[in-house]
User: What shape does this take?
Amino acid sequence: MAKQMQDKVCVVTGGAGSIGLASAKLLHGEGAKVMLTDLKETALKEAAARISGDSDADNLAWCAADVTKSDQVKNAIARTVSRFGKIDVLFSNAGNFGTVAPISEYPEDVFDSVLAVHVKGAFLTAKHAVPHMNDGGSIIITSSVAGVTGDPGVYGYITAKHAQVGLMRVMAKELAGRNIRVNTILPGLIDSSMVRRLVGDRESTVAPRIPLRRQGTPWEIAKAIVFLLSDDASYITGTELIVDGGLAAR
Assistant: This one.
């Protein structure tokens, strides 16, 4: 079977995190040329080495960038085009969580920061990438099952995740004329590095809430992402793919 992403150029933001890294590794394994972006150069270099065993591989590059800063995003996109000559795929995955607090106590600066990374970051990445994208390309924004639900106190994260779904729908309508598909992936409770930094091992705590009785893995999310980005999903645009072990159904 031919590799699904052979010779496609993919930009992955949040590429040093669990879902970003797993997705980039699968995309690379499917024949794609991958540009990783994230905040820290050291983390990106380590991620690149984990993907290919060689951080200087011809079909893999990395560029540190803060997705909330237009000039840094523009530079990362320009470096992608300079290195690989085009962009076919954008996986907008950069994110942070913020905190949990009653609305009267929720810090304004945290709210601003979370929305900036998730919403402004996804907007800026698309703004600078789309002019360089080939017609027939694909964009995915990582939202969350939190983008269709709500939980007390999670003001920044849940608001941002709902907003990303709206951003996706606007882009899907606008870019359909170029046959550029735009979708969101909505992971549920995933055993990711961000989660472990926040709460440690939570498997025994959350598993009873999930119909499949376990957390998902970054690799399970990555496989859904590669499908949506590939030509196998050629008639899928403007939608939210929930990958949550049945959590939303409950």
Observations:
- The chain has a mean pLDDT of 93.
- Helices lie at 18-29, 41-52, 70-84, 108-129, 155-175, 193-199, 203-206, 218-229.
